[in-house]
Amino acid sequence: MSETGHPSGAGAGGEERPLPADVDGREARAHISLDSAIERIESHRHSKEGLRAVGGLKGQVVRGWTEKLLTRTTSGAIYTIVILLCLFGGVVPTTACITAMAWLCCSEFFRISRMGGRMPNEILGLTGAIAYPVSMYLWGFGTIHVVTFALVLSLAVWYVLTPRANLADVAITVFGPVYTSLMFSCIVLIRKVDAGCDGALLTLGVMGSMWANDAIAYFVGSRFGAHKLAPKISPHKSWEGFYGGLAGSVLVWMIVGILGLEGIGMGLALVCGVVVGISAVIGDLFESRIKRGVGVKDSGNLMPGHGGLLDRSDSMLFGCTVAYFLLHIGGIL
CB under 8 Å, gap of 24 or more: what pairs does 48-53 form? Predict the structure, then answer.
């Protein structure tokens, strides 16, 4: 209050006194500064629109990578739990599981083949996919000749009676169950070596070495991959990931050797770790080459984050077959 009893800034008659000029200047400068800040923010946002539209912002990349990792991990965990329950459930549950997986992998292979213009006989091919693991369980490895001959003979009859079929369709129909089911059936033979816990652990070691190979190769390649392994076939695979995955495979086989499962020594375990690990990568690249040949990214959508079951099992097909032969040569099977 002033000495006259009026509020400061008001005259005796109650009229407003004009504010000092420097107050109006500060307010004007503040408005200009705020407008400039808003313009800079809008300009910055506009400059990022291109990256935002393609998901290239740092936050979008981190969020997308995290979501992909969680989806892939959850899907892989469910897959692993089912496998473990079957392995430790006994030879029969293992055979049933491998038969189902082989059938699904063969079905996805035929789907890819049809996208490439081929017309396989899926009824005969998928029947063969079931026959391989079941015959392996019942009569052993020697039955592959009987199953293969029966498949080829039935396809020969189909080829003769079906004018629209060509030789490539016959070849694809034979190759489908041989590639997926016959090679997958080696897991049944490995599991049969011991119906108890040791047989389950050995089979888990064989499959686990390829899981470790895939998982470690993925993480190492994602973080440190700089040198492309096969850019024209699988652009995301790197030599760094390859060596990381190979180390994971060897580590699992070293654990098998330390445990001495079924008499496996450290020397055989080391050989298996290296050779099986390399074979698993070849299997992965082989399936990638098949998909790239017809222009598809995934063999199916059964396993979110992984694609189809064939995508998840491609390394297993080659790796478990090589493991079976190495264990057979080593006198374990």
Answer: none
